[in-house]
Structure formats: structure tokens, C-alpha cells
Known about the structure:
The structure is a homodimer of 130-residue chains. Chain A is an alpha+beta fold and 130 residues long. The first copy, chain A, folds into 2 domains: 1-73, Winged helix-like DNA-binding domain superfamily/Winged helix DNA-binding domain (Arc Repressor Mutant, subunit A), CATH 1.10.10; 75-130, Dna Ligase, domain 1 (2-Layer Sandwich). The first copy, chain A, has helices spanning 7-17, 25-35, 41-54, 97-103, 122-127, and strands at residues 58-60, 68-70, 77-81, 87-90, 109-120. Chain A has a 3-stranded mixed beta sheet with strand order 4-3-5. A two-stranded antiparallel ribbon of chain A has the order 1-2. In chain A, helix 1 packs across helix 2 (25-35), helix 1 (7-17) packs across helix 3 and helix 2 (25-35) packs across helix 3. Chain A is flat. The model of chain A has no long low-confidence stretch (mean pLDDT 95). Chain A binds chain B through residues 61, 63, 77, 79, 81-82, 90-93, 95, 98-99, 101-102, 104-125, and chain B through 61, 63, 77, 79, 81-82, 90-93, 95, 98-99, 101-102, 104-125. Strand 5 of chain A pairs antiparallel with strand 5 of chain B. The first copy, chain A, binds a DNA duplex (30 and 30 nucleotides) through helix 1 and helix 3.
Amino acid sequence: MALKYSRQREVIKDFLCTRKDHPTADVVYMNVRQQYPNISLGTVYRNLTLLSDMGEIMRLRVGDGVDHFDADTSPHNHFVCSECGSVIDLKMENIDYIQEAAGKDFSGRIDGYTAYFYGLCGSCCGKLQS
Amino acid sequence: MALKYSRQREVIKDFLCTRKDHPTADVVYMNVRQQYPNISLGTVYRNLTLLSDMGEIMRLRVGDGVDHFDADTSPHNHFVCSECGSVIDLKMENIDYIQEAAGKDFSGRIDGYTAYFYGLCGSCCGKLQS
DNA sequence: ATTGGAAATAGTAATGATTACTAGTTTTAC
DNA sequence: GTAAAACTAGTAATCATTACTATTTCCAAT
Lengths: 130, 130
């Protein structure tokens, strides 16, 4: 009996599945509280960690000091806007080749990688052309 | 007169140049205090930020919750050991092509990327084979 | 060389994301 | 039904980093 059902965890997972913008724990908390008014922030954090440990969701450390979460666990890369901070999915060819490249002259074992691209998102790009 | 000389900044930069292990602000603080006993942690943080803003050093956000700093500003990639947490330089071919790949089907502007590889370093790899 | 003011410093307090703790509640295997 | 294990809400603690403040240092112009 490793894992027990919890309504809170279900609601958190369900909410995350409706979003494609990689919300932070705090954003998840704010939203989930609409349907589940007295859920605790600690519960949100614990379940997000649990779900990502189980591989049901992904934790994104994009380098802005706050963890983001993604219900889409299929392999894909992310873009982070330097202006507005939004985290966006990238549609691009597979680049797993870089993992091979990294392992060529390395004495340890490489299990994976994370790649984040940054710059200006489409919306911020337009705004700054005035 | 934008930037003024400071002995503290010089000592911090000099120390960082002697290290290839990408120390954290706290490690820099501990070590610099040997030659400069009453330097403040805030001064270390402020100068590390200043130096990286000027492009003299690099700030590495490897996703372990602590910033690491690197005096080597030439383009290269990093490996993070999942076991011991050490951050190691990788000797590998240039992979800037992934930035082109990311920009192909993207409406914004891509200015750069960060790629971190993870797994077991050579030393931890050996220890876990018992 | 003196000096005025901008930039830097030490020391400390504040911030903010995340984790830990605790007493009580829910789930579930028997 | 029941008991143990897992979970929860609420709160306190942690820890990296930033902000604040009174004082000191650097340096360009006199």
C-alpha cells in the first residue's frame, strides 16, 4: 500500500491537465482553491512533488527561481520569455543527439539533459517594436 | 563613473578564477573570508551579480536551488551529478545548432539557450558498482 | 592636496519559495 | 468494523537571496 487515493491530488492533477502554460505551485494553489476552498499550500506542494516523482507530471526548473509544472510528460522542450517570464512549449525536431555528443568524452554516465531556450515571446516581441 | 574599483570585487573575481568547480556564493564567501576576514555575504552576492551582469563571469542555474558561478565565460556546457551534486565542465562539440532548430517554428525571438546534462559523475559511477 | 558626491561596504533585517512538523482525518486491507 | 498507514490543514521553520542603512572608499574636478 504505497500510495493511497486522495481527492486533493486528483483535483491538482486534473487542474494541471487543463493548462498548457506551466503554472507554478502558487498558481495551482490559487486555482484549485476555487473548487476546494480549504486545501493547504503544503498539500499542493507535496502532491506536485509526489506526482512528478511518479512521472505523472514534470517539474520544470527554468531558472527564474520558481518551479513550474507540466502535465505533458512527452519529450519536448521549453522556451522562457526574458520579458514576461512565460514558459512556452516548443515544437521542434528531436535534439537527443546532444546527449550522445555530451557522453563522447565523459568518464561518468549521462542519464538525460534539460534544455531551455530564452529570448522574447511572440507577444513581447511585437510590443517592443514601438 | 559607472563602476568604481573595489578590493572586495577583485578578491572575489580572483578567487573564482582559481576554481574550476563552479562554487556557490556561500563557498565563495567562506573562502574569500580567509584573506578578507570581515567581508560581508551581501557584498559577495552583490559583486557576483555585478560581475555576471558585466559578462566577466557566468551564473549557472543548474536546478539544484543554488546558484553556481563560473569564471570561464567561453561557450561550454555543464554536467550535474545527481548523486553528489558536483558541477563539471563538458568537453563536447558545439551544439548551437539546437538554437536554430528551436527557432524554426517559433513566432518570437530566440536569444540563447542553456543546456544541462545530468547523471552520475565518474567518481560516483565507480562507488555505486559495489 | 582637498573635497563633494557617487558608489561600495558591513551588518542586519526582510523576502519568498519550499519543506518540515503535528495533531487530527481519510483510505483501505483484512 | 477496525486498525494501521497514508494523507490533510494549518502553521512554523529553513535557506538562498535581496533590501536597507549608516558609514566608508574611490575618484574627478577644483
